[in-house]
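Example (one chain per record):
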Amino acid sequence: MTEFLWRLPSRGDGRHARRDRRNRGGFGGPAPVTPVTDLRPGRFGPFDDLAQIIDAAELAGLDGVLAPYDPHGEESWIVAGGALRGTRYSRVVVEFQPAFGTPVYAAKMSATLQRISGGRLAWQLAMDTDTEDARARGDRVTGDDRYARAAEFLTVARGVWNDAPVPSAGFAGTGFHYEGTYYDVIDGGFRGILSGLPFPAVYLSGDSAAALELSAQHGDVHVFTETAAGVDTAIAALRERATAAGRAVRAGLELPVVARETEDEAWARVERQWREVRPDGTGARQHDLGDGRWAGFAELGYAANIGLVGSYEQVAHRLSSYVTAGVDSVVLSGHPHIEELHRAGEHLLFLADPAGRTLTAQEATA
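Predicted structure:
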């Protein structure tokens, strides 16, 4: 069964391509007043809209959500905690920078989140951030050193974690020691209520040799972004490195989607949003790659540039082709989020993954 996740918004939501016109969630300025607008204060806060999106993802049949790292948006750890508290079945992937704190602190927070959620938390380490963002956070580690630090981060986090229950013993750890370039730990290890929990699945990303090697050694899922040449070569390189390390790493892919009943309707939606950000010049079709993929999503405010445009059947067929190529985790995105989530749940997912999301006759009558 293919895993489908949904990337949550981090700076508000809305129908428009321009961020300054997305009024949902407290970003983009005040929403326009209509005859049915409730003007009473305190009736609907910024997080309520995000909570509705999280609920919609679970109700639509998505396997989980990604709370993205965004230096100018909502804090991903807070969003992830709210998502875990507000859902019953969804996996919640929190994306964060390894420099945000020590690996022991990240592991301790995660142990508590695993306790309250029944083990549904996962990690995604944000590695490929720009230099300005790093310096604004006070982080001086650059280049491939970021991946070396991330390797130590994950080694230490796993080292202090105990999957099996360990009785409490005052302030004593469980004997984990580590001396590295970036972290030193003496007698680390969780006991009591912080032990006996599953370690979060680790999602990683990036196309460089250092990124692939980090995933091969420490990752559970490597999330690629689509390129004009495809991702087959990158997936093969990941598999080769993982095999050499004696591990199996799943391949993931992040894809924005615009899917409608017909291909013309989908392109009409893309053209409307494109004209909002590019009112002059050629239309959105100039970035059509000709096989259901479109290379203009970044202009519309998406994290990934290449995604899928077409009818539900066309987009589902393309998603199925990725699965055939070895992708078994897909991070979808679309805005406005609630509306696009329901479209995905009602019209798309069962076509893309019929074996995993269609009831058999026996199941339907059970």
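Caption: DSSP finds twelve helices and twelve strands in the chain.
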